[in-house]
């Protein structure tokens, strides 16, 4: 990227001073929190204008990248239909339209198509639309759906009569999860409070204006959700924090009954419940952090009656269960990668579904039917596009139904996948997965995009990306550092990278970068790092710790103002995340957070080139965090490397909602990456 003579915006300093645990905190850019202020809007607009001007020389490359990414996509396409009740459901896209169209056919795939929801119509002339709930009643006559038009995850729930296509007049604001009772008239749903915490469960009969509050979660650490079992026999109300959960249940055919407590919560005990013909299935961590599975009779839900079905294993993480009439499918994770195992209900025999590649991502698909011997799942890898399979649970045969088409000259054999084990500073083995184009692999160092996440126990799984080919085919190696704090190696991996162990995530990432440099894959002049949300915290922290190791940094909706955010319990997510980061009201946690918070650890000096991206309506990481971060960096940095802030003024945490708009955002980021490493074509 060429250096420009343009002058960046200068944010005025207006000190805002607070005293916490005897320490004086001064925040010069606290004023940016006022979203309605004209001075804030003017500043953000100036940042956007500066970024656009700085990136103007790359516009031909941006357009080229967009065209080639678009050319790989089958723009008019249909997802594999799945059966639920008397209908086959599917979604499809149409060339030139931004959003999906949700459809069904009665009886068979040769039936007449009925469009049940078209987001292109609902989102017409709007800059943003996001679908939340999409739940059809058991008789197929009603659709409960929710939409957000801002990006702030502010969903409004409506019910549509699928016979007439007309919505009922009542609407439900700030709605989250939703499910139907067996009478197909009673709806259970959750609403959120002023901090966006899902905390109240309601019951309403469609067509009636009154609603009944049936449960309210009063502990600010907990959120609540409603769901039904695949058997359609029970409705579950699950309260959960980051470390603890509690379930209530009621029969789906008795919607007016009071929910019953399944098992009283206790700190650090997580359990989740499903229903089968032989009773309740319980996924629980009562005997180990990686969970086990127990079963219990319908009338004996206290844990003293739980009978072990699958024991806890130190080397296998049990992530979820899918219960069917004759089989149970377990989502497991071993050696860093997911797998599926199957158990027959009648004889207890088990097997693991064989998959073609060791480094993969596999997860259950649309499995709406309870009485079936076929399990649908999705499979992909760095070199295999998303593939939908039907697996016969009895014969163990696997049928490929569809593989996402990559148009143009794509051949998976042109790319190579590697998985390395890197020694962290304390001896832990940190996996690094990578993919690159074989013909572009040099003997010496070459450009690399290294990404990571490392939070909430979420694994950074191996996924295929047709857009990523635009980097690989230009000689960029794509790599993921699977650092602690994530869930790749089970709950232990999460525990070793959260709370007072959080700095392990950062030192793991640095160790991975050092190893990749020492092994000759890349060098500091060609290494670009990227992270989003909590991954933005990761790259922000390591940039402060080792700024000279990286050529550039991409920080997407980055959680970088840790102290100020975690001290403000009026913000969405804050209280619920005390069990991930700690509560800064406690002195030791405050001191520890302050030691790594990217915003609080900016010092004068040289920094890499940086592109920081955010959205004005983000409710998960407020826009002012990256805006303040850039302003403070700009005042402190002594180099001439580009520092760009890009703000989507009409979106939320996930960026643009339309698929074409989203491709343009990717093309913009890729042009920045390629530009800083000297690739201009």
Outline the structure in words.
A hairpin with a 5-residue loop joins strand 26 (337-344) and strand 27 (350-352). The protein has an eight-stranded mixed sheet, sandwiched between helices. Strands 3, 4, 5, 6 and 7 form a five-stranded antiparallel sheet that branches. It is built from twelve helices and 39 strands. Helix 6 crosses helix 7. It has four domains: 1-71 and 530-676, Rossmann fold; 126-314, Prolyl oligopeptidase, N-terminal domain (Methylamine Dehydrogenase, Chain H, 7 Propeller); 315-405; 414-523, Rossmann fold. The chain is an alpha+beta fold and 681 residues long.
Write the layout of secondary structure elements.
Layout: E1 16-20, E2 23-27, H1 38-55, H2 59-71, E3 77-78, E4 82-84, E5 87-93, E6 101-106, E7 114-118, H3 119-122, E8 130-136, E9 142-148, E10 156-161, E11 166-167, E12 175-180, E13 186-192, E14 198-205, E15 212-216, E16 223-228, E17 234-240, E18 245-251, E19 260-261, E20 271-276, E21 279-284, E22 292-296, E23 307-310, E24 316-323, E25 327-334, E26 337-344, E27 350-352, E28 361-364, E29 374-380, E30 387-392, E31 398-403, E32 415-423, E33 429-437, E34 448-452, H4 469-472, E35 477-481, H5 491-495, H6 503-518, E36 527-532, H7 534-545, E37 552-556, H8 562-566, H9 578-581, H10 587-596, E38 609-615, H11 624-636, E39 643-648, H12 659-676
Parallel strand pairs: 34-35, 34-36, 36-37, 37-38, 38-39
Antiparallel strand pairs: 1-2, 3-5, 4-5, 5-6, 6-7, 8-9, 9-10, 10-11, 12-13, 13-14, 14-15, 16-17, 17-18, 18-19, 20-21, 21-22, 22-23, 24-25, 25-26, 26-27, 28-29, 29-30, 30-31, 32-33, 33-35
Helix pairs in contact: 2-12, 6-7
